[in-house]
Write a structure and sequence with these properties.
549 residues, alpha/beta, two-stranded parallel sheet, 14% strand
Length: 549
């Protein structure tokens, strides 16, 4: 039950995007479009006044036929002018809840390795613009780069913004002995997209030496992987991780009683074992490794894209060239790229996941709450309840969400920051907590009486990407917070420091262990909402540090 809930939550947090050598120039056909010469050929996008968008730009060849479960290869060149006025199809995934699509229907295409570019149409100030490359979330099972309209970041931040599709589920994270020590293909796709950005950024007015990789949830987990990946060296110069770090994990029973603990990365051995079982289920066992792989590559998209098979392969494997060791181990031992890092979480992360599960697994009474604590924490359950009494949080369900927020997101993210600081004490390192208790609810989430979502998982994203569907528009104060966040994010992309002259000062995360005192920037609307706070103490991280020992 855990993986479907993870996928549902992530898909609900899941619209196109722009590039210019000469922004806003009319195309050769005189249709008022924008034409740019990329490394593969000419592309025509659309000018929207203050910005232009280029959708569906191929960064790798279609991973179909013999290229299924192969590392991405460069896209072929083309003649003439390629239409880039709309995004390409999303990668194969399960239907987004609430769309009315058949639960067994295949959504998307295997021919999906495309990206979208958004650029301002104003003349650059003389310097190349910073480039932000967005990796979407979705539990490595869903989502698409084109879900995120990047015009606000591009125009207000004077930046080039790239959003990326990458392989998902069984198509992106399958493993088998016949494939050897193959990389996690979805992460290899992301690195191929970054290589495309290196080759083409200047053609869109961007700086290939000023690339910021940013993402949320599974997107942030992927960035953690790239921070520790030898094959990502030189592909980006800064990183922003939203609601995901190298230490993110869920305890046993997090969303469903008895559900196993969740770790986002898996050993190559475990993924190969799952691959052998999938081959058996698909009837592909005869002959040697080549014959088995030929049989598997001969399966239709529909036969592979079942919920069971997709959910069996959503954890990137380590023990290969791209990820030699688990990212948490690499971070702890100092094996990561020395680039400025900005990372953070939302105040009520797990309210999204718990809110989605309450209909199936209600937590109505303190007895229900204690049963969940015992399932998750065993002998430590009493200590956890003492720190998180239900009466202090308004309801047993809200108390459970607070426990999981602190255990799985807030305190693990601070611990990841400490690990970075321990090995690179002079590295620019900044942390935030998005804390708008009245943030608009993402469309599609169920209403639970007495259970407010607050600043739940993914709720900061509409403040950066205004096209995401929410239940009501931002208020004036929330729009002002959005402006500040866009300024912080894009200035960090430009300089490695989020601070601007007209915004409240954002301090560096203190490298002490633990980071006591106000060194995490609170991002909330209204007077005094943006200020340094002591997140470590407020979220009981000393308890979780002790339990993790």
């Amino acid at each position: 039950m855990l993986l479907p809930l993870l996928c549902t939550a992530a898909l609900l947090t899941a619209t196109t995007t722009p590039a210019v050598a000469r922004p806003g120039a009319p195309d050769s056909a005189g249709q008022g479009g924008t034409v740019v010469r990329t490394e593969q050929g000419l592309v025509r996008g659309i000018s929207h006044g203050a910005y232009a968008t280029f959708g569906g730009l191929p960064y790798a060849a279609p991973p179909t036929g013999p290229l299924r479960w192969q590392a991405p290869v460069p896209a072929a060149a083309w003649q003439g002018v390629r239409d880039a006025t709309k995004p390409a199809q999303r990668c194969v995934q399960m239907p987004t809840p609430g769309t009315g699509a058949d639960a067994g229907a295949v959504v998307g295409s295997e021919d999906c390795l495309y990206l979208n570019v958004t650029v301002p149409t104003t003349k650059p100030s003389g310097k190349k613009r910073p480039v932000l490359v967005w990796m979407h979330g979705g539990a490595f099972l869903g989502g698409s780069g084109s879900d995120y309209g990047a015009e606000r970041l591009a125009v207000q931040g004077d930046a080039v913004v790239v959003t990326v599709n990458y392989r998902l589920g069984i198509f992106g994270y399958f493993g088998h002995a016949g494939l050897g020590a193959a990389p996690p293909f979805g992460l290899a796709d992301q690195q191929a997209a970054l290589r495309w950005v290196q080759a083409n950024a200047e053609r869109f007015g961007g700086d290939p030496g000023g690339v910021t990789l940013f993402g949320e949830s599974a997107g942030a987990l992927g960035i953690c992987a790239h921070l520790t990946s030898p094959t990502a060296a030189g592909l980006f110069q800064r990183a922003i991780l939203q609601s995901g770090s190298c230490l993110t994990s869920f305890p046993r029973g997090a969303l469903a009683p008895g559900a196993p603990a969740y770790e986002p990365f898996a050993s190559q051995t475990d993924v190969r074992t799952a691959g052998a079982e999938a081959a058996r289920q698909l009837g592909c066992t005869a002959g040697g490794g080549d014959e088995v792989l030929a049989c598997l590559r001969g399966q239709s998209t529909e036969r592979l894209a079942t919920a069971q098979l997709m959910q069996s392969f959503n954890r990137p494997a380590y023990g290969n060239e791209l990820l030699p060791v688990a990212p948490d181990e690499a971070l702890a031992s100092g094996r990561f790229h020395r680039v400025p890092v900005l990372l953070g979480t939302n105040h009520d992360e797990m309210r999204m996941f718990v809110g989605l599960s309450l209909a199936a697994f209600p937590i109505r009474t303190e007895s229900d709450y204690r049963a969940r604590l015992a399932d998750a924490f065993g002998p430590a359950a009493a200590a956890v309840e003492a720190r998180y009494p239900a009466a202090r949080h308004g309801s047993p369900a809200l108390a459970w969400a607070a426990v999981l927020t602190d255990r799985s997101f807030t305190c693990t993210t601070l611990a990841a920051g400490r690990a970075i600081a321990a090995h690179a004490p002079g590295l620019p390192l900044y942390a935030y907590e998005f804390n708008d208790p009245d943030a608009p609810v993402l469309a599609g989430l169920p209403a639970n009486p007495g259970f407010l979502y607050g600043a739940a998982h993914g709720f900061e994203m509409p403040f950066l990407f205004p096209s995401l569907p929410i239940e009501r528009p931002l208020t004036d104060e929330q729009s002002s917070l959005s402006d500040r966040m866009v300024g912080y994010w894009t200035n960090f992309a430009r300089t490695g420091n989020p601070n601007t002259a007209d915004a409240p000062r954002w301090p560096r995360l203190r490298p002490s262990s633990p980071p006591l005192g106000p060194s995490v920037q609170s991002l909330a609307p209204g007077p005094g909402g943006i200020r340094p706070v002591d997140v470590y103490s407020a979220h009981g991280c000393s308890l979780w540090d002790r339990l993790a020992e």
